[in-house]
Design goal:
The chain is built from 9 helices and 8 strands.
């Protein structure tokens, strides 16, 4: 996905504002298994996924708990770092070789004060991130693992082909054995 499509998907910008924003965006790539963000560190960047899949997870003494997947066109951000300049809670691992667009948070803040269209784009961006978080919390609190798996099948079927079952099981909050039972039940 190209950067124009990604930016417009968040909130359409006038061409002059989009050009101003794109001056601060660079294209980077990293290999599979690269740790893009580490928990307990301030991340001064926002990333947009051009190509590839990432996962957000938190580590416990026993294991890693996956709570989000991102793929082409999505944003990768530590909201705590973005909003408060404090260390984030999550780590972000690349599950495939990834091509990303990188934007420094400080540059974006500068643009917010200079261009009302970019400021509005930033507001829409934050609103979308809030909705994603809200949907995640509601799904975890009120849906069964089977319902969450069916949601994945419906909304993000490509993930099921591209992500290890262990990560999918972790995301659903179940063991791989339970995931195998769910998959057998659905077939």
């Amino acid at each position: 996905m190209n950067i124009d499509e990604i930016l417009d998907n968040i909130y359409p910008l006038p061409e002059s504002s989009k050009l101003s924003l794109k001056k601060y965006i660079t294209e980077i790539s990293h290999p599979k298994n690269f740790c893009l963000m580490e928990a307990e560190k301030i991340v001064p960047y926002i990333y947009f996924i051009k190509k590839g899949i990432v996962r957000a997870y938190a580590s416990t003494a026993e294991n890693d708990i996956t709570f989000w997947f991102g793929s082409e066109g999505q944003t990768v951000i530590s909201m705590r770092s973005y909003v408060e300049d404090k260390p984030g809670y999550e780590s972000i691992e690349l599950l495939e070789d990834c091509e990303l667009y990188k934007l420094e948070t400080e540059s974006l803040r500068k643009l917010f004060s200079e261009d009302i269209h970019i400021a509005n784009w930033g507001r829409k961006f934050a609103e979308r991130e809030l909705i994603k978080t809200e949907e995640l919390i509601i799904s975890r609190q009120f849906k069964t693992a089977l319902e969450r798996y069916k949601d994945l099948m419906r909304d993000k079927s490509d993930l099921l082909k591209r992500v290890q079952l262990g990560h999918i099981a972790s995301y659903l909050g179940i063991t791989q054995v339970s995931l195998s039972r769910i998959r057998a039940e659905i077939k």
